[in-house]
Write a structure and sequence with these properties.
This protein is α/β, with parallel strands linked by helices and 244 residues long. The chain is globular, with a radius of gyration of 17 Å. The strands form 2 sheets. Strands 3-2-1-4-5-6-9 form a 7-stranded parallel sheet, sandwiched between helices. It has one domain: NAD(P)-binding Rossmann-like Domain (Rossmann fold, 3-Layer(aba) Sandwich), CATH 3.40.50. It is 39% helix and 18% strand. Helix 4 packs parallel to helix 5. The longest helix has 26 residues. The two termini are 24 Å apart.
Length: 244
Amino acid sequence: MRIFLAGASGVIGRSLVPLLRNAGHQVTGTTRTNDGRARLETSGIDVAVVDIFDKDALEHAVSAAAPDVVIHQLTDLSAGLDPASQEETLKRNARIRREGTANLVHAARTARVKRMIAQSIAWAYASKEPPYVETDPLDVGATGTRAISISEGVVPLESAVLQQSDFEGIVLRYGRFYGPGTWSLEPDRAMPVHVDAAAHAAFLAIEHGRPGIYNIAEPQSTVSIDKAIDELGWRADFRREPYG
């Protein structure tokens, strides 16, 4: 298939690109910088240098790629969460999820894609007795920085992808990443998921699974992953080799 991967140079993108390329898909990956272009070109994919907030340029880039599937792996958390600037960082990331996703959905609709797969988070559920399943409500009553992530970011992202009828929308609610390129090489927080396994979920969702939401985390987490296992054929222990 023809794949448009927004966020190809990010932590998930670096694991996902080899999976897509080795499966024979024709991939166009986005980056915001010329340095990012150089890195992506060495991975053997086509590259679009585009700003997710430039609606017209993004529409042109997606239409030029003529994809069957759009994969949305954009975030603004690569620098980590410095406590001194946590709120500012979360607001930037929420803007990508809110405005960037809306622009990407518009571009996908214009290009008449068949399916969009988007990254969300698995720790946004309203409090209840675990495990959390995909039909449980999100914590839209949250306050403080949690409200920034959920109400200003996750909710509009998921609504934009799922509440339309022009293409099939899939949302992957990821647990907390660990592994190469992330903040930790080993699981150190609740709801862990290895970055390779997270990328593999997006890879599988290209051709598997009904439209909707899927929790993606390791077993024995506070979220149920039965749906991802049953419908995507996903495995939490998936790892790719070699790195690079």
